[in-house]
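Sample A.
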Amino acid sequence: MARIEMTYRRTPGIRVIEWLTRRKFGKVLDPVKVAMHNRRVLVTSLAIEGTAARWNSLAPDLKALAVMVASARIGCSWCMDFGYWEFHHQGIDPAKLHDVPRWRDSDVYTDLERAVMEYTEAMTATPPEVTDEQVERLRQDLSDEQFVELTAWVALENFRSRVNAATGLTSQGFKEYCELRPVR
């Protein structure tokens, strides 16, 4: 259960944001409802998300795995639910999305994907546990631009997941709209 009221003052600007999120996602996202309690936080969050959506040097599957692993490590069920839905609709292999919580024991990932997930877990730890070896391993396959983008995605998902988990947000039912197929 959310730790903050999911109701807020509905100004004309807020109504526009509600309309836009309903149009894009079918409903107003709970993190948006939380942010609507503080206009500056809302505007900053929307600006960050809008800018990040244009980052495009990292392969979509690596981005998806980094985001999902950070969400899983923090324990944000809202982010896991929404992430599965979002990445499923982007064509990421559902078996890879499904196995994120048990990625170390799964055989569906490449060596690079495993390196990304290991780096993500290390970066998400408090305090971060990133090693020089992890960075060097990634830099064998990623350009500096891609590595920086990966790092930024992990940091952004840490922000999202920690805010959502701290405010008590849980699954909003996005995953149930995905066409699930049997996973190996």
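Sample B.
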Amino acid sequence: MKVEIEESKLQTAYANACDGVKDFMESLFGKKVFEAAKPTLDDYKTIRTYEDACKALGEPIFEDPNNLPNHIIALMKLETISRALWGRNFQPKPDGEGSKVYWYPWFALWTKKEVEDMNPEQRGALLSAHANTGAIAGFGYLYATNRSSYASANFGFRLCQETEEKAKYFGQQFIELWAEYLKFNFTVGNRLK
């Protein structure tokens, strides 16, 4: 019997494995296969976990002595991950003239099927949202003028990335942390493998 495994999936499994499993995988496939899986500031795709970000930055893993709320801890971890994803040479700086574009992870709160399955009243409330301002910071939201509520997400610079590709990776790979930070009651999809 022959089994084929994509190298990227093997490296992801290695990066998420405990030390004993890593030793087993190294003895089975050889250490060289996993050298590329070590977190580095030179390749953002090697940052697969918060712990990887800390390792790449040379920072200790955050221990919470004060019992901070979970969404605050998640934000702190996301900021650390964001810095690691920026890499060794990127220095983000706000641009007062607006000539530089930064990317923020984009989240869909409803799948196409969920929208199709909504009753007419729910769908009407969703689709009657003001279309021109529904995603200012890359976070979709409803804008309801003269209604019972108003929600806005205008800026998240510390969590921005310099490319759309990196922002997408940041949002998908760390979706559980984003969900904890944003505190919405939605189901979490799959991470990138």
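B remarks: Confidence is low (pLDDT under 50) at residues 129-144. The chain has nine helices and no strands.
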